[in-house]
Amino acid sequence: MKKQTQQIYGCLADSKTPIKLRPIAKRAVIILLALTVWASLFPVNALACTGVYAGGGTTENGSIYLGRSEDFGPDWVKQFVIVPAADHAPDEMLKDDYGFCVPYPAHTLRYSAVMDDPAEYSGLTVIPFGEAGINEKGVAVSTTVSTYFNEKVQAVDPLTSGGLTEMSMASYILQSEGSAADAVLLLADCIDRYGHGSTEPDDPDYREVSTVLIADREETWVFEIVSGHQYVATRLSDDTVSLLPNDIMTQQVNVRDENVIASPGLISTAKDGGFYVTDIEGDDEIHVAKSYSQGYSQYSSYRLYYGASILNRELADGMDVVPKPIAEISDQFPNASVEEAAVGPFCLEYAPSDAVRGRISLMTLKQVLASHGEGTAYETTARDENSDGVPMRSIGTYRQNEEHVFEIRRDPAIPATVSTIEWLAMGPSEFSVYVPFYASVMTETPDGYTSESTQTFDPESIYWLFNELGNAGNGSYYRMDDSGAYYDRNGNAVDAETAQAVLQFLSDSELIHDLHDDMNRAQEELNAKAAADDERMIALAESASDEEVAAMANQLANENAEYIKRIASEKLTEIDNAVSAYIEESGLEQAANHHPGEAVLPIVLLCVLLVLVCSFIGYRVVKRKKAKRV
After folding, report:
1. Is residue 486 helix, strand or coil?
2. I need a labelling partner for 221 at 20 to 30 A (CA). Which of 3, 28, 381, 491 fits?
3. Contact at 8 Å (CB) between 295 and 230?
4. CA distances, 94 to each of 98, 108, 164, 520, 597 (Å)
5. Distance between CA atoms of 383 and 17, rounded to whole angstroms?
6. C-alpha–C-alpha distance, residues 31 and 92, integer Å
7. Which tens digit of pLDDT belongs to each residue from 112-169?
8. Tell me, what's the pLDDT at 454?
9. Range with the lowest mean pLDDT among 41-50, 237-246, 582-591?
10. Shortest CA distance to 177 belongs to which of 190, 164, 166, 165?
11. ∠39-41-47 over CA atoms, to 5°?
12. How far apart are CA 138 and CA 441, in angstroms?
């Protein structure tokens, strides 16, 4: 879970949308007590993501695909940057917000990072939550699929103080390693030494760990950290696909298998702690999920089903995904610590159906990462529930704020320097466009990906443009604060009647359906351009200098960024114009040029003043009484 800094989050009472309340005290001093009480009204927004993998034997062009959607919530700015290579002094330290502090290598590699705004954190020397990136050697990493171990594990191998967390994980790997195999060993050594740290150090019962995808042209590994010091890494098959929700996915495994790297204490810790489970007898056998996992709640079970319904419908139809009380499934998951869990069966990787095998492409994974279970018995709304209001966590969700897919081409005719394309989308997958980058050779990213406007809408920011399209598509064209007051993306107050009418208008209109189709058309157009650009890049990389290749990669990045910025801006303007016309035609009240929170400020200050006056009067009374005793 990420640390919330400088933001206060809440939920829409009617739509469950996490929102970020603009600071209302920038022009006045409010006592610490008032701020504490105010902040306590709003729950912290949990991190949740979905990882995906498709082996080269399953895809249309033989490429390996891997990636993830980050579902931290709307209005949380993401930046796309290139971290330059650097030399470091012996005493220079890599340090993050959660206590992880280790010396930098003497030389660190250049790498890309999809990161949080560093201004949201303090005292760090690391890229914050770099999450996705590829380094100059062609090692790609997708991190921060958060998972959780059970209470029995917590009793014997809890999270460590000062251990590696998701904040630093991608940077720690990408800055150092030249192959996926070496990166796996580096991460294993780090967990052996320092353990997995906690992003909630004040909560001794916190149990969040991490799943990481690591790949290069030779192989792809999924590395699951399952407790404070235990882990299991599996080399994924070329003929399988995988979907990774927020649960431990490694099933029965032999720790001596050549495709497995496990911590030395993976089995002994489970045995000593009384939570060891295996479906196959043998000293080297363990069922990792049944031993370490908290159980597959609705938060993960439906996502596993939605992914399989696209990639292997027959497998999906055989899954029991409806959670049941733990007492009813204790024979299958004796260590589960959630209240209800589904039994599946689920698996880390599986073969796609014959209808899908050899046809998977970027568009397939875009569909997977946007899925609401369309056409299945468990279809959801944009609010992660079915039409009856039953919670069902979908893959495509209003919470998505970026998605990335690495396309790793293994054709030896393609120079290694340009063999991987990093496709990056901002906002929900359903309403966004994946933009191609030759990130391993780039030396800079387009300006549209580095906005520092974390509090207000920035029309030049690609993140903010697609964030707003996602909000419109998911029924959150207007925000609503805890007092029930609505406001627009610029912080202007909106009459409640107007807001409700506009939200209904958008729901009933064809605008949102058109938005979905327009983004898919834009994606196909960009794919066609990318194919033509790729021929130029391959030809250039075969003969030109590294500087010339980097210059071309930077140029194409800027061209593509300008294209999708224009597409998003035009579509958002179209929606805004339609809303304005509807408001005018309906005789509704236009937005006022102030934030609704400003109306609360005088009341807060008055309350503070009353508290201070009462305290002063009480002090005088007590002082007089004491004086009389003397």
Report:
1. strand
2. 3
3. no
4. 12, 11, 11, 41, 39
5. 8
6. 39
7. 999 998 878 877 778 899 989 999 999 999 998 999 999 999 999 999 999 999 999 9
8. 78
9. 41-50
10. 190
11. 80
12. 9
Residue 468 burial (C-beta neighbours within 10 Å; 0-12, 13-18, 19+):
buried
Q: Whole-angstrom distance between the N-terminal and C-terminal Cα of the chain?
A: 57
Average pLDDT in the chain: 87
**Most confident residue range from 1-10, 559-568, 584-593:** 559-568
User: In which element (H, E) is residue 494 found?
Assistant: strand 493-494
Q: Report which of 49, 59, 50 is spatially closest to residue 362, judged by C-alpha positions.
A: 59
The tokens for 86 are: 């650097």
Q: CA 324, CA 317: separation in Å to the nearest integer?
A: 18
- Looking at the DSSP bridge assignments, the partners of residue 628 are none
Tokens 């008032």 locate to: 34
Give CA–CA dist 423/565, Å, rounded: 15
- 201 preceded by a cis bond (ω within 30 of 0): no
Tens-place pLDDT, residues 30-46: 222 322 332 333 333 34
Position 609 scores a pLDDT of 58
What's the CA angle centered on 205, arms 201 and 209, to 5 degrees? 70
Which pLDDT score, from 0 to 100, does residue 387 have?
81
Distances (CA, A) of 389 to 77, 107, 186: 29, 53, 45
HSE-CB for 444 with a 13 A CA cutoff: 9
CA neighbor of 224 nearest in space, from 252, 250, 255: 250
Q: pTM score, two decimals?
A: 0.88
Angle at the Cα of 158 (from 153 to 161), degrees rounded to 5? 170
CA pair distance 119, 200, nearest whole angstrom: 20
Whole-angstrom distance, CA of residue 289 vs CA of residue 346: 10
Over pLDDT 90: what percentage of the chain? 77
Q: State the pLDDT at residue 594.
A: 57
- Alpha-carbon distances, residue 117 vs 78, 231, 416, 424, 499 (angstroms): 6, 30, 31, 17, 30
- 382-to-131, 440, 461, 472, 614 alpha-carbon distances in Å: 25, 35, 24, 11, 48
List, in sequence order, the alpha helices (H) in 87-236: 151-156, 166-174, 180-194
Separation CA 219–CA 244 (nearest Å): 18
The residue written with tokens 């064809």 in the block is 510
Q: Which one-letter amino acid corresponds to residue 546?
A: D
Cα separations in angstroms, 41 against 23, 37, 383, 419: 15, 7, 22, 49
Overall size of the chain counted in residues: 630
623, two tokens = 């002082």
Residues 6+ apart with CB under 8 A from 574: 511
How many CA atoms lie within 13 Å of 116's alpha carbon, on the beta-carbon side?
A: 29
Q: Which H/E stretch holds residue 502?
A: helix 496-508
CA 473/CA 211 separation, integer angstroms: 30
Residues 6+ apart with CB under 8 A from 83: 108, 110, 111, 112, 113, 127, 130, 133, 171, 174, 175
